[in-house]
Amino acid sequence: MNSKIEHSKDTSTGGDIVKYAAAVLLALAGLFAWFWFGMPEHAVQNAWSGPLRGLGVAIGLAAGFGVFMLTAKGRDTREFLSESRFELRKVVWPTRQEAIRMTWVVMVVVIILSLLLGGFDFAIQKAIQLFLGR
User: pLDDT tens digit string along 61-85?
Assistant: First the structure.
Protein backbone atom coordinates (compact mmCIF):
# COMPACT_ATOMS: atom_id res chain seq x y z
CA MET A 1 0.00 0.00 0.00
CA ASN A 2 1.20 3.46 -0.83
CA SER A 3 -0.78 5.40 1.74
CA LYS A 4 0.76 6.79 4.88
CA ILE A 5 -1.03 6.42 8.18
CA GLU A 6 -0.53 9.39 10.41
CA HIS A 7 -2.38 10.32 13.51
CA SER A 8 -3.94 13.73 13.45
CA LYS A 9 -2.05 16.26 15.51
CA ASP A 10 -3.54 19.49 16.75
CA THR A 11 -1.29 21.93 14.92
CA SER A 12 -3.54 24.96 15.31
CA THR A 13 -1.44 28.04 15.82
CA GLY A 14 -2.61 31.49 16.73
CA GLY A 15 -2.38 32.43 13.06
CA ASP A 16 -4.60 29.52 12.09
CA ILE A 17 -7.23 30.55 14.61
CA VAL A 18 -7.22 34.07 13.17
CA LYS A 19 -7.55 32.59 9.66
CA TYR A 20 -10.46 30.40 10.80
CA ALA A 21 -12.19 33.46 12.22
CA ALA A 22 -11.51 35.44 9.03
CA ALA A 23 -12.90 32.59 6.90
CA VAL A 24 -16.10 32.47 8.96
CA LEU A 25 -16.44 36.27 8.85
CA LEU A 26 -16.02 36.33 5.07
CA ALA A 27 -18.69 33.67 4.64
CA LEU A 28 -21.00 35.54 7.00
CA ALA A 29 -20.31 38.79 5.12
CA GLY A 30 -21.57 37.17 1.92
CA LEU A 31 -24.73 36.00 3.69
CA PHE A 32 -25.16 39.43 5.27
CA ALA A 33 -24.99 41.03 1.82
CA TRP A 34 -27.75 38.68 0.62
CA PHE A 35 -30.13 39.69 3.39
CA TRP A 36 -29.10 43.37 3.55
CA PHE A 37 -29.67 44.03 -0.14
CA GLY A 38 -32.83 41.93 -0.09
CA MET A 39 -34.55 44.40 2.20
CA PRO A 40 -36.78 46.80 0.24
CA GLU A 41 -35.18 49.93 1.71
CA HIS A 42 -31.63 48.79 0.78
CA ALA A 43 -32.33 47.03 -2.51
CA VAL A 44 -30.70 48.30 -5.65
CA GLN A 45 -33.51 49.17 -8.03
CA ASN A 46 -32.50 47.16 -11.07
CA ALA A 47 -33.17 43.77 -12.63
CA TRP A 48 -29.79 42.39 -11.46
CA SER A 49 -30.34 42.69 -7.72
CA GLY A 50 -31.06 38.96 -7.27
CA PRO A 51 -28.09 37.69 -9.29
CA LEU A 52 -25.81 40.31 -7.73
CA ARG A 53 -26.90 39.22 -4.27
CA GLY A 54 -26.13 35.61 -5.22
CA LEU A 55 -22.75 36.70 -6.54
CA GLY A 56 -22.04 38.41 -3.21
CA VAL A 57 -22.78 35.16 -1.36
CA ALA A 58 -20.61 33.17 -3.78
CA ILE A 59 -17.72 35.62 -3.41
CA GLY A 60 -17.99 35.55 0.39
CA LEU A 61 -18.04 31.76 0.50
CA ALA A 62 -15.19 31.46 -2.02
CA ALA A 63 -13.06 33.98 -0.10
CA GLY A 64 -13.78 32.17 3.18
CA PHE A 65 -12.85 28.85 1.58
CA GLY A 66 -9.67 30.38 0.17
CA VAL A 67 -8.61 31.67 3.59
CA PHE A 68 -9.44 28.30 5.16
CA MET A 69 -7.22 26.52 2.63
CA LEU A 70 -4.26 28.58 3.89
CA THR A 71 -4.49 26.96 7.34
CA ALA A 72 -3.02 23.67 8.57
CA LYS A 73 -6.39 21.95 8.18
CA GLY A 74 -6.60 23.36 4.66
CA ARG A 75 -3.20 21.85 3.87
CA ASP A 76 -4.43 18.50 5.21
CA THR A 77 -7.55 18.83 3.05
CA ARG A 78 -5.48 19.55 -0.07
CA GLU A 79 -3.25 16.54 0.70
CA PHE A 80 -6.29 14.30 1.21
CA LEU A 81 -7.85 15.41 -2.08
CA SER A 82 -4.55 14.88 -3.90
CA GLU A 83 -4.20 11.35 -2.51
CA SER A 84 -7.84 10.60 -3.34
CA ARG A 85 -7.29 11.65 -6.94
CA PHE A 86 -4.20 9.43 -7.08
CA GLU A 87 -6.19 6.45 -5.75
CA LEU A 88 -9.01 7.07 -8.25
CA ARG A 89 -6.52 6.59 -11.06
CA LYS A 90 -6.03 3.00 -9.87
CA VAL A 91 -9.73 2.12 -10.14
CA VAL A 92 -10.70 -0.22 -12.96
CA TRP A 93 -14.05 1.09 -14.13
CA PRO A 94 -16.58 -1.31 -15.70
CA THR A 95 -17.40 -1.09 -19.37
CA ARG A 96 -20.78 0.21 -20.47
CA GLN A 97 -22.01 -3.33 -21.18
CA GLU A 98 -20.90 -4.56 -17.74
CA ALA A 99 -22.56 -1.59 -16.03
CA ILE A 100 -25.85 -2.20 -17.87
CA ARG A 101 -25.73 -5.92 -17.05
CA MET A 102 -25.08 -5.25 -13.35
CA THR A 103 -27.89 -2.67 -13.29
CA TRP A 104 -30.35 -5.23 -14.66
CA VAL A 105 -29.22 -7.80 -12.09
CA VAL A 106 -29.77 -5.29 -9.28
CA MET A 107 -33.22 -4.36 -10.60
CA VAL A 108 -34.31 -8.02 -10.85
CA VAL A 109 -33.03 -8.81 -7.34
CA VAL A 110 -34.84 -5.77 -5.92
CA ILE A 111 -38.11 -6.81 -7.58
CA ILE A 112 -37.80 -10.40 -6.33
CA LEU A 113 -37.00 -9.30 -2.77
CA SER A 114 -39.85 -6.75 -2.83
CA LEU A 115 -42.33 -9.45 -3.89
CA LEU A 116 -40.95 -11.83 -1.26
CA LEU A 117 -41.21 -9.27 1.54
CA GLY A 118 -44.67 -8.21 0.33
CA GLY A 119 -45.78 -11.87 0.43
CA PHE A 120 -44.44 -12.29 3.97
CA ASP A 121 -46.21 -9.10 5.03
CA PHE A 122 -49.49 -10.30 3.52
CA ALA A 123 -49.17 -13.74 5.14
CA ILE A 124 -48.36 -12.28 8.56
CA GLN A 125 -51.26 -9.82 8.24
CA LYS A 126 -53.71 -12.65 7.45
CA ALA A 127 -52.32 -14.80 10.27
CA ILE A 128 -52.76 -11.98 12.79
CA GLN A 129 -56.31 -11.29 11.55
CA LEU A 130 -57.13 -15.01 11.88
CA PHE A 131 -55.55 -15.13 15.35
CA LEU A 132 -57.45 -12.07 16.57
CA GLY A 133 -60.71 -13.41 15.13
CA ARG A 134 -61.53 -10.76 12.57
Answer: 999 999 999 999 999 999 999 999 9
CB 43 within 8 A of CB 63: no
User: CB within 8 A of 24, min separation 6: which ones?
Assistant: 64
So what's the pLDDT on residue 75?
Answer: 92
Structural contact between residues 61 and 30, judged by C-beta atoms closer than 8 angstroms = yes
Torsion angle, CA of 117/121/126/129, rounded to 10 degrees?
170
H or E element in which residue 42 lies? none
How far is residue 127's CA from residue 117's CA, in Å, rounded to a whole number?
15
Per-residue DSSP letter, 78: H
